[in-house]
């Protein structure tokens, strides 16, 4: 990824973060006020969920600043994976919020406590749904443009809040018929928040643990090898290391036993250069002979 791309990506991510913080703070106060007026725990839970979005956006801004730091002596592959840590922190915040409101919802059901929704709660909930879905769409757009997992995670955080508001909206319409609806909805919102947090953590942890190369990437690399190499190179044994801001790819190729080291080096260096230019991936190629010594173990 070039310097210009990094600069534009950082600017877009910062813009998304600040817009989300401002919108979420306004929504938090509106929802909390409406929850107090109506006596709705589900709406208050939804308000705190919205505030957690602001916290996650602050973490996102801090993580973005650190993620974009260039490689140094202690971190030769850069600081890109700090974005994954940021995503895990966002997911953990969601899990904490979910636990708190599930517990509160249970207490409300246990005490047989109902709620009286009104016009204010209805209006604030509709505003929340529309605003949060708009923020989610904006985050997804920025995430795709910047190739940022943490921004996409922030988008899912916004969307989970929109979904929880939809659940509250349903409760507003049917709450007058069932005393237990608010407590039940609080637990339902908590479970939705928990799922969102789990998905964010699982996706980020998967990258940290290491994943198989994408089949489309492997196919693109094979086409480059076939275009620039010689017959029979048979690229195989692919491994990719995702450092978020860049990717390191290693794989094996076969070359004739009689080929000189200089010739082999020239071929694989050319392939590595084209992979970097066309796919944005730093490749390291291991060379094997066409015929392997029978006394050597060969594992593909």
TrEMBL record:
Cation efflux protein cytoplasmic domain segment(s)? 213-290
- Compartments where located: Membrane
Q: Quick check: keyword Membrane in the entry? A: yes
What's the protein's topology in the membrane? Answer: Multi-pass membrane protein
Gene Ontology cellular component? Answer: membrane
Q: Membrane-crossing residues?
A: 12-34, 40-63, 84-103, 115-141, 162-179, 185-202
Listed GO molecular functions?
monoatomic cation transmembrane transporter activity
Q: Carries keyword Chloroplast? A: no
Q: Which Gene3D superfamilies match?
A: Cation efflux protein transmembrane domain (1.20.1510.10), Cation efflux protein, cytoplasmic domain (3.30.70.1350)
Concerning its family, UniProt says: Belongs to the cation diffusion facilitator (CDF) transporter (TC 2.A.4) family.
Q: Where is the major localization of this protein?
A: membrane
Cation efflux protein transmembrane domain residues: 18-209
> Please, which domain of life does this record's source organism belong to?
Bacteria
InterPro entries in UniProt:
Cation_efflux (IPR002524), Cation_efflux_CTD (IPR027470), Cation_efflux_CTD_sf (IPR036837), Cation_efflux_TM (IPR058533), Cation_efflux_TMD_sf (IPR027469), CDF_Transporter (IPR050291)
SUPFAM superfamilies, per the entry: Cation efflux protein cytoplasmic domain-like, Cation efflux protein transmembrane domain-like
Going by the UniProt record, its keywords in alphabetical order are: Membrane, Transmembrane, Transmembrane helix, Transport
Q: What is this protein called?
A: Cation transporter
């Amino acid at each position: 990824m070039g310097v210009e791309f990094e600069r534009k990506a950082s600017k877009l991510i910062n813009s998304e973060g600040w817009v989300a913080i401002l919108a979420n703070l306004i929504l938090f106060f509106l929802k909390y006020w409406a929850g107090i007026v109506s006596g709705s725990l589900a709406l208050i839970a939804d308000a705190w969920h919205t505030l957690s979005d602001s916290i996650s956006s602050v973490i996102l801004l801090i993580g973005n600043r650190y993620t974009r730091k260039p490689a140094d002596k202690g971190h030769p592959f850069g600081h890109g994976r700090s974005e994954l840590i940021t995503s895990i922190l966002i997911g953990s915040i969601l899990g904490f919020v979910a636990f708190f409101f599930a517990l509160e919802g249970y207490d409300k059901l246990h005490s047989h406590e109902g709620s009286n929704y009104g016009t204010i709660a209805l209006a604030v909930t509709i505003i929340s749904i529309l605003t949060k879905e708009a923020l989610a769409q904006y985050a997804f757009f920025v995430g795709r443009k910047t190739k940022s997992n943490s921004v996409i995670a922030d988008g899912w955080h916004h969307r989970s809040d929109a979904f929880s508001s939809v659940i509250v909206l349903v409760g507003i319409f049917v709450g007058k018929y069932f005393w237990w609806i608010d407590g039940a909805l609080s637990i339902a919102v908590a479970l939705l928040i928990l799922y969102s947090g789990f998905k964010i953590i699982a996706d980020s942890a998967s990258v940290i643990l290491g994943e198989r190369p994408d089949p489309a990437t492997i196919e693109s690399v094979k086409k480059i090898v076939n275009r620039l190499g010689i017959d029979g190179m048979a690229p195989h044994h692919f491994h990719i290391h995702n450092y978020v801001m860049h990717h390191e790819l290693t794989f094996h190729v076969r070359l004739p036993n009689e080929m000189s080291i200089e010739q082999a080096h020239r071929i694989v260096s050319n392939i590595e250069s084209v992979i970097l230019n066309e796919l944005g991936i730093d490749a390291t190629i291991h060379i094997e002979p066409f015929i392997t010594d029978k006394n050597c173990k060969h594992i593909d």
